Amino acid sequence: MRLSERDQSYSLGARPFQLAHRVWDQVDLKAAAEPELIRLSELSREVARLGVLDGDKVLYIDQRDTPHQVQLTNGVGSRAAVHATALGKAMAAHLGTEERRRLVSDSDLTAFTDHTIVTPGDLDQQLNIIKARGYAIR
Question: Which pLDDT band, with edges at 50, 70 and 90, does 66 fall under?
Fold first, then answer.
């Protein structure tokens, strides 16, 4: 709290916001998302993954497998190019304008399959579609 000498009133200083940020940083994202990962996996009968953006990569931090056989080449703890994964594109589609522009223009858009988007213009267009649709495929 800070006392204003001018009108003898109190206002919050930066410290409460710093403390709130510290608490938020300690939230266990995996634990918070676990019920939804389970629900999504059971509902879709597909693998459900949780990831965070790490530069121009997606870092997979949790996963719920499906009962039927699916072979994934990367698992929890691995990273994948944002432009080459549905999860990465879904997150990138919802970035702020400047952050998204930087990601699209600065990323190395390497082709991993015949379907990988490799031009900034095509990626930006795909991200607009994904944002409007609400989900990403591939």
Answer: confident
Bin 103: left if φ > 0, else alpha if -120 < ψ < 50, else beta.
alpha
Token pair in block for residue 116: 């990988």
What are the backbone angles phi and psi of residue 105, rounded to the nearest 5°?
-80, -30
Q: Mean per-residue pLDDT for 3-15? A: 65
pLDDT for res 16:
64
Residue 138 CA to residue 63 CA, distance in Å, equals: 17
Report the alpha-carbon distance of residue 87 to residue 118 in Å, rounded.
Answer: 17
Give the Cα separation of 43 and 66 in Å (integer). Answer: 10
Query: In the predicted model, is pLDDT for residue 104 greater than 70?
Result: yes
Measure CA 7 to chain center. 45
Query: Long-range contacts: 125-128, Cβ < 8 Å, 24+?
Result: 126/89, 127/89, 127/92, 127/93, 127/100, 128/93
CA angle 76, 78, 82 (to 5 degrees): 110
67 contacts 105 by C-beta, under 8 angstroms? no
